[in-house]
Structures are given as structure tokens and as C-alpha cells.
Design brief:
The chain is an alpha/beta fold. It is built from five helices and four strands; from the N terminus they run H-H-E-H-E-E-H-E-H. It has a single domain, classed as Rossmann fold. It is about 35% helix and about 15% strand.
Length: about 170
């Protein structure tokens, strides 16, 4: 959020249905795609700027699915993108699929901690091999799934990629 904001992008952070104080119930990634599309609609109606999607963990998996096919979204960032099954105490293990990325030609950045149990480097590299350019994987040494103690490195990686990917900055779009 801070990296995108520092480039002049308006930022919207929200909870998916059934999380925190939000209304509704968790929909296993189906209704949550609609949540992301509603957020993109709001950002577009309020700011009329190119959009960059950034999501963390489940939000990355669901949000990239919504953002790939949305012409308003110029680029995608997935932090802590889960590629290994995630077992929860009360439900079946979550298995994430990313076939939709095979047709996504937008700039894509995946960032993972070297110790992320849900995003093992080998599986992320295998995913990257299946998707078209432009794409980049950044692995932050010493970081876990939540980037505990490594948020500065996470922000720096996003900022460097935004400059490198030649994403137009909103302040330059008048």
C-alpha cells in the first residue's frame, strides 16, 4: 500500500466478505472475485486513473483472477502468492490455480519470502515458466509468508519494479 501510494496511486484496502467487520460469508474465492471487481469499479469511478492491482496471499490469488481480465488494470502484484495447498483447521485444504495467468499479458510481479511455506520458490518459478512476459519474481531472503521484519524490503521491491516496468504514474497523467 505504501509503495503504490508513494507513486501517487490512490490505494483502497478492504476486507473480503466475512473477514473482520465485513458483511457476508466467505465464498471460497468465487464471490471474492466480485468483491475485487466492485473495488476496481469504485476506484475507477472515483479517480479515473490507470489501476495497479496488488494483493496479499488469498487476496493475491483472487484479485489477480479478477484483475487480469479487467482492461482498467495496467499491472498486477501478488505478494505472498499461495501456490502450495493451504490447510486450514476447519476446512479442506485450499488449492490455488493460476491457469488464467497463461493468457495475461499485463506486467506481473510476484513477491515471496524465501521461507514462505505457502509460496515455495520452486513452485513459484514453475508458475512463472507458464505465464507470458512481462513477469518478474522477487524472493526476499529471510522473509516468511507475512514478510515479518522485512516490510521495508517488500516496499523497495515493489517500488523498484514499478520504476522498471514503466508503469505510468498518476501524477504524470494530466
Amino acid at each position: 500500500m505504501k509503495a503504490l501510494h508513494s507513486f501517487g496511486f490512490p490505494v483502497l484496502r478492504f476486507n473480503f466478505r466475512g473477514t473482520g467487520l465485513s458483511q457476508g460469508e466467505h465464498d471460497h474465492g468465487v464471490g471474492e472475485v466480485d468483491d475485487v471487481l466492485a473495488a476496481l469499479d469504485w476506484l475507477d469511478s472515483e479517480f479515473h486513473l490507470p489501476l495497479v492491482f496488488a494483493g496479499f496471499s488469498f487476496g493475491a490469488a483472487v484479485g489477480m483472477r479478477a484483475a487480469c481480465g479487467d482492461a482498467r488494470v495496467q499491472a498486477l502484484i501478488g505478494a505472498g502468492t499461495p501456490v502450495a495447498p493451504v490447510a486450514a483447521d476447519t476446512e479442506e485444504p485450499r488449492v490455488y490455480r493460476y491457469e488464467f495467468l497463461e493468457e495475461c499479458r499485463k506486467p506481473k510481479l510476484l513477491i515471496s519470502g524465501a521461507r514462505d511455506q505457502f509460496g515455495p520458490r520452486g513452485k513459484l518459478e514453475a508458475l512463472l515458466n507458464l505465464i507470458p512476459e512481462p513477469k518478474k519474481l522477487v524472493v526476499i531472503e529471510g522473509a516468511d509468508h507475512f514478510f515479518e521484519g522485512r516490510l521495508r524490503e517488500l516496499r523497495e521491491a515493489i517500488e523498484a519494479w514499478l520504476r522498471e516496468a514503466v508503469i505510468p504514474q498518476p501524477s504524470a497523467l494530466s
